[in-house]
Amino acid sequence: MSLDFKPGAFNDFFRDETFREDFTYRNSPQNIRRFPFPFDRDDYMYSVNMEPHVPGRKGTAFEHILDVDEHYVAEMIDRAKVLADDPLRCQSLPHMTLAGWDLLELIMEAKARDYPHWFSLTKDGKRWHWVNRPLGIDHTFTFLDESTLPYGPFEYITRQTQGDFSLQDERDGTLWMDAGMVTSQADWSLDFDVGMNFHEWHAPVPLAHEKGVFDRALKFLMKLQHGSPVRRFNWTMTVNPLLDTAPETYPIWGPTKTTLTPENLGDKQHLRVELQSLYRLPRSNAIAFDIRCYLASFNEIVTVPKWARRLHRVVRDLPEELATYKGFIRNRPAMVEWLAKHDDGAPTSPGW
Ligand code: HEM
Questions:
Q1: Which of 132, 144, 65 is CA-nearest to residue 104?
Q2: What number of CA atoms fall less than 13 Å from residue 38's CA on the CB side?
Q3: What is the ipTM of this complex?
Q4: Is residue 1 one of the residues assigned to a domain?
Q5: What is the rounded radius of gyration, in angstroms, for the C-alpha atoms of the chain?
């Protein structure tokens, strides 16, 4: 068994695109149309915005519970590079191994069911045969026996799955972030947060605590049932299509915020959307949190006129505390000026 990436006969993926150095990442026109634009109105404020994570319309990012898109292989290569540079981006405390197996089962079953041309899972009792064709993996192992995998179950499966993941243990009336695979995060650190509880890791977020958002969100999550996952959106802004905006690498990417000009802004400035989904796991009773990151440049966004109008209004009117926390207060005036040219002032419909 090898985890080396073997180019196969799959043309569905942009294998060679990069999320670093020369930044060749782009969305195809089809992928722009399925971009999960996160705003359902012309303004934005934090809320407990959770809904059932049920399969959605064909051709959207919600068609399946785990979305595999054209960036799959390139994202997995980027993750492997981040982990080679900094192994602490994946951590699992000893009591989370069972939750790792739960997650492995969830992901393998979902991918084999929803993408049978790319993935297959065959079970003979506890002997499982997993095939991941895009990454060239063909592996037989024993479920719940770690010695039959090259990594722990959590690291093994999240090295093959787009999106960051954390696993939360439930105890003492709260959730504890006791495992994570975090290589495409919006400026937060797994190594700092691991072992913290729900209110502790959310401490830096402005305005939401006093609005009771986190008290209500935690109450909601404690009632999460196995088989009824939920989802929500989060979003921020990133200069360049950089997946790994970690505090650990801030000296590399932080200064790039000063490189925007009116000429390059449409290409360099990216809206970063997180489609977050939450699952109660069956054996461990842990909660898995999947943070799937989608990047689209402003040039890509404004190919959809109603998105262009709305993004302009949201960025323009966002409370200062949120623009500061999300790290784009410095560039907001330039972004608003650029986006204003794509806003004809027409009214928009709430709800889409
Ligand atoms: C931000 C984790 C669930 C709302 C964050 C951050 C982390 C995180 C690590 C970054 C904090 C920082 O700046 O260091 C998680 C995990 C969850 C979870 C592991 C599930 C177990 C939720 C839920 C809500 C929520 C259910 C619903 C209201 C927020 C908000 C922010 C945030 C509003 C600020 C995001 C921004 O403005 O970019 N979360 N979260 N989180 N979280 Fe959560």
A1: 144
A2: 26
A3: 0.98
A4: no
A5: 20
Specify the amino acid at residue 109. Answer: E
For residue 218, which atom of ligand 1 is closest to its CA?
26
Helix (H, G, I), strand (E, B) or coil at 155: helix
Maximum Cα–Cα distance across the chain: 61
Is any ligand 1 atom within 6 A of the Cβ of residue 205?
A: yes
Q: What is the C-alpha to C-alpha distance for residues 37 and 32, in angstroms, rounded to an integer?
A: 10
Closest C-alpha to 245, from 184, 174, 291: 184
Distance CA 255, CA 239 (A): 10
* Residue 253 CB–ligand 1 contact under 6 Å: no
Give 342 Cα–ligand 1 centroid separation in angstroms: 31
Beta strands in 39-85 (DSSP E): 51-52
Domain that holds residue 41: 29-95+160-340
Q: How many domains does the chain have?
A: 1
Residue 101 maps to a domain? no
Residue 20 DSSP SS3: coil
Q: Which residue has the tokens 């787009």?
A: 162
- State what percent of residues in the chain have pLDDT above 90: 94
Q: Mind listing the pLDDT tens digit for each residue in 224-254?
A: 999 999 999 999 999 999 999 999 999 999 9
> Where would I find the H helices in 16-57?
29-33
Q: Is 316 a catalytic site residue? A: no
Q: Say if 147 falls within a structural domain.
A: no
Is the distance from the beta carbon of residue 273 to the nearest atom of ligand 1 less than 6 Å?
no
Residue found by looking up tokens 């109008």 in the block: 309
Distance (Å, whole) CA 155 – CA 272: 24
Question: What is the CA 14 to chain-centroid distance, rounded?
Answer: 18
Using a 6 Å cutoff on CB, does residue 177 contact ligand 1?
yes
Q: How far apart are CA 169 and CA 178, in angstroms?
A: 6
Q: State pLDDT tens for residues 277-308.
A: 999 999 999 999 999 999 999 999 999 999 99
Q: CA dist 31 to 59, 196, 329, Å?
A: 9, 36, 29
Q: Which two tokens stand for residue 137?
A: 């993996």
Any domain includes 106 = no
